[in-house]
């Protein structure tokens, strides 16, 4: 088991995975900060804290935390309402404290009540969003922030109209880099090559893609200047040449905002939304985990709370567990939570040591990496698998996907949950028992009704219709021997049926009914 292995023995898996997550997280941290109307460095701070602090405290083996696209609108509105980024940072600190309390009172149990169909729908939707959102970047159209995942975009377009507009502004240089990058990533995932060459197992394809993108763009400058990608098509990272300069990029909370009532509205909103998104991402990450390990939800809320307090204290955005980073982490072959910590360390070291080199990375290269992540989340095989499970699973799955595509993550999940609950209620309504007719057409038809383990008030209507439809002169056996709880409303219908049975010459036999079962 992994628990008995040292961190060192897993480093050969976790370090490359952490590097891939770092490459995925870097543009997302910057893009989310830009979309949130916050300083760019606040996104980097949140990524570092999400990796090092939350990664160390979390009980999840594969989930990775950082600034979340789902909070961009909330962050933007909170900064505008408070009129100060420093005041907003205090709201982040308070939100973290609320999350920690939620973990202490075991509110994380909510995470166990999201239906599988909705969680898988969320994963597929995120995959499709990544594909749709990254196609413009792959074509060299970078007007929308790379971390934006909302349907309505800050540049005035939406997910689909952005695609049409991108086709009008193609960049040949970006397209070449994207196509070559995708070819390498597909090649790097080939199982035959992985089995033959150690290089394909220990060197991430994403790293090769990044270096190739930098090299090709450099060659453009020498051989084809018209194809050269300028700064707007490259990573744009704030530079800090030393620890002292990095400290100058930090921002601290304004404690005078404690007297502002809007502070508490913002902090409660951030805490609730961030906690829900974390629990959703945690559940989804566990489903992606090849070893199917279960993450402790209450411990995660505590870790997220501490992480958000730290992030707010030093100028970072709110943090949640994020499915894009988590799925990239799983796809890269991580084994333990150290890959999340490594990605945070990579962010911190690279921002401090080589910001100039990072600013040479074409966004088209990173778009290719995210396109592959999106494809793995939204494979056709997943749709086929859900369809084979029947409409009760397939419909909430599809509705969740469509709703997330046209709104945002939390609204889409809410709509998907409504559909899932509808099917749950319908199934409860239909199947509170097993119905078996014996000897139909004979003088005395025998009907066996075996009640389920739990018969709730939701089964009241179904039971009433079933008993009403029983023909005259039948022999009815209601077997409650395997039932543990029978709702009083259902029992009342059965009790009333005794009178009906006499008027219709029905012989009624009730087995295994203990009054203690009636609740």
UniProtKB/TrEMBL annotation:
Q: Which residues form the SLC26A/SulP transporter domain?
A: 13-400
Q: Give compartment(s).
A: Membrane
**TM region(s), chain numbering:** 20-49, 85-105, 117-135, 169-188, 200-220, 263-284, 305-324, 344-373, 394-425
Principal cellular location given in the protein's record? membrane
How does the protein's chain sit in the membrane according to the entry? Answer: Multi-pass membrane protein
Cross-referenced InterPro entries, in alphabetical order?
SLC26A/SulP_dom, SLC26A/SulP_fam
Sorted keywords for this record are: Membrane, Transmembrane, Transmembrane helix
Q: Sorted alphabetically, which PANTHER family does this protein's record hold?
A: SULFATE TRANSPORTER (PTHR11814)
* Name by which UniProt lists this protein: SulP family inorganic anion transporter
């Amino acid at each position: 088991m992994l628990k008995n292995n040292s961190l060192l023995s897993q480093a050969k898996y976790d370090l490359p995975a952490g590097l891939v997550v770092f490459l995925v997280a870097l543009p997302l941290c910057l893009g989310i900060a830009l979309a949130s109307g916050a300083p760019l460095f606040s996104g980097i701070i949140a990524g570092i804290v999400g990796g090092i602090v939350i990664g160390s405290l979390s009980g999840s083996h594969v989930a990775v935390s950082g600034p979340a696209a789902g909070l961009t609108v909330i962050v933007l509105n909170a900064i505008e309402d408070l009129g100060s980024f420093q005041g907003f940072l205090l709201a982040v600190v308070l939100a973290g404290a609320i999350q920690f309390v939620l973990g202490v009172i075991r509110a994380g149990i909510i995470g166990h009540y999201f239906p599988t169909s909705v969680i898988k729908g969320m994963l597929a939707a995120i995959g499709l969003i990544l594909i749709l959102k990254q196609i413009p970047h792959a074509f060299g159209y970078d007007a929308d922030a790379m971390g934006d995942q909302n349907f309505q975009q800050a540049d005035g377009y939406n997910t689909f109209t952005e695609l049409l507009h991108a086709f009008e502004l193609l960049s040949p240089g970006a397209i070449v880099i994207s196509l070559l990058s995708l070819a390498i990533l597909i090649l790097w995932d080939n199982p035959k090559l992985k089995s033959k060459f150690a290089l394909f197992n220990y060197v991430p394809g994403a790293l090769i893609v990044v270096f190739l993108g930098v090299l090709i763009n450099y060659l453009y400058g020498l051989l084809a200047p018209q194809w050269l990608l300028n700064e707007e098509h490259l990573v744009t990272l704030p530079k800090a040449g030393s620890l002292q300069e990095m400290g100058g990029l930090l921002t601290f909370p304004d404690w005078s905002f404690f007297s502002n009532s809007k502070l508490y509205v913002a902090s409660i909103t951030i805490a609730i939304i961030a906690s829900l998104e974390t629990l959703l991402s945690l559940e989804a990450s566990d489903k992606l985990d090849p070893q199917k390990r279960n993450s402790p939800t209450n411990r995660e809320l505590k870790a997220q709370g501490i992480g958000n307090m730290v992030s707010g204290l030093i100028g970072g955005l709110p943090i949640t567990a994020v499915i894009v980073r988590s799925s990239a982490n799983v796809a890269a072959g991580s084994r333990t939570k150290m890959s999340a910590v490594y990605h945070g360390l990579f962010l911190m070291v690279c921002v401090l040591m080589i910001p100039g080199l990072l600013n040479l990375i074409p966004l088209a290269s990173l778009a290719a990496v995210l396109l592959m992540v999106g494809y793995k989340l939204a494979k056709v095989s997943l749709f086929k698998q859900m369809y084979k499970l029947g409409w009760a699973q397939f419909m909430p799955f599809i509705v969740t996907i469509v709703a997330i595509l046209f709104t945002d993550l939390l609204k889409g999940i809410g709509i998907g949950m409504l559909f899932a609950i509808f099917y749950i209620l319908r199934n409860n309504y239909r199947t509170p028992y097993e119905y078996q007719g014996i000897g139909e057409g004979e003088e005395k038809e025998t009907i066996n009704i075996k009640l389920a383990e739990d018969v709730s008030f939701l089964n009241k209507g179904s039971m009433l219709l079933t008993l009403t439809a029983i023909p005259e002169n039948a022999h009815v056996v209601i077997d409650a021997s395997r039932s543990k709880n029978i709702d009083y409303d259902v029992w009342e219908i059965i009790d009333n049926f005794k009178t009906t049975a006499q008027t219709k010459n029905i012989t009624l036999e009730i087995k295994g009914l203990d009054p203690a079962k009636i609740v």
